[in-house]
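Study both lines:
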Amino acid sequence: MTRTLPRTLGELRESGYTPRSVKEEIRANLICKLQSGDTLFPGIVGYDDSVVPQITHALLSRQNFILLGLRGQAKSRILRQLTLLLDEHIPVLEGSEVNDDPLRPISKYGRTLVEEKRADAPIAWIGRDARYVEKLATPDVTIADIIGDVDPIRAARGGHVLADELTIHFGLLPRANRGVFALNELPDLAGKIQVGLFNIMQEGDVQIKGYPVRLPLDVMLVFTANPEDYTARGKIITPLKDRIGAEVQTHYPETVELGTRITLQEAWTAREGVSRPVEVPDFVAETIERIAFLARKDKRVDQRSGVSQRMPISVLENAVSSAERRALLANEPAIVPRPTDIYAALPSITGKLELEYEGELVGSEKIARELIAEAASETFDAWGGETATRELEDIVAYFEGGGVLQLGDTAAASAAVEGFRTVPGLIEAVREIGFAASNQPGQVAAACELVLEALVAERRITRTEAGTYARGPRRPRPPGAGPGPGSMS
């Protein structure tokens, strides 16, 4: 039988309800989750031994904290999941803008309601999500936005003088009372606004503009910041930084395997309303992930801005869409992305790379193409591509002898496989390496393309932007060698 929640102050008192601070509440629920072995932050991959323990320590210590890291490192998602550590619902005085605790109201509205109604003061219950308030810090944010200000319209409608506390329009921070207040990109907040956070972080109260009244707020403050923002667009003023209990540094996935897990988890690949199944070959997903890893090491890419995890997620989504388009045009039974589709997703790469001066000279598209080929080569090596030495030599010899292979991005997998069969050693190399676990045309075609892309990265063959594979770049002739075939002396 479902227990009826108290609806008046008298019923609440009789229920034995005992108030506790939001930090004590989070700490208690965190301890329960740790003891039961529950996952603290569902869907967050790669932080189990680094970020999550540090956040846990801060929460157990009842500290405010800041997540410091480059873009696309799940900072905002982590903060939003703090609501999972809040109680399912808590009682507040009905109509209170600052979530007044019925037993300890802090606003004049709450105190007046209790004085007038006493045990009959109405109670409302709010859930976890309503106790999380998030604000993106921008230079135009004002004290009124965060803390509050006088509301002349409220004063006129209520017949109050401006000095009356009931004329206050509360900002986001007081409205987050008894909950979590998250401020994203803290360095972008003007210095004078950062000063306005001092009291709440140290003394636990705020003072509304021009009023001789203080609100002893009960709130957990959490922040995010990008290291580049410390010097580029703004900075966290020293006294505020000193009041933040813990600085937790986030990071990108440390291994390709972890990155691939994140990408596959976040990318929209299960296409609703499509009868064809989406089958992403493991080596294609790995190649896409390696593009991000290579970009994070490339000197032509601005590493201070970082390469967001959103890049491989977007690339995979677009690669699947390219494969979906081909499947629809060619009436294929399954949607199987292959390296050709990664090239079709170039806009998802070029739009997410911040380049250094050297990179600007080369151009984002050329860099992206080089990253794709190099990523294919690394995947090829990781899967044991060197085991197919003889087959690879046959492939290179075919192109060196003048062989050319033209593949359209809309060519059906079965037609592509027939084209690959004309290249000696290619199908054999795929089987030797173990790329295609089945003989499904889509898997075989994707595997063949990956082998060719690896040879392109090694400059043993070439690939045009139109997708034509041909002989490798001519190597300079050794000194003293005679004229080449067909040359004139």
The longest helix spans residues 310-330. The CA atoms of residues 232 and 418 lie 54 Å apart.
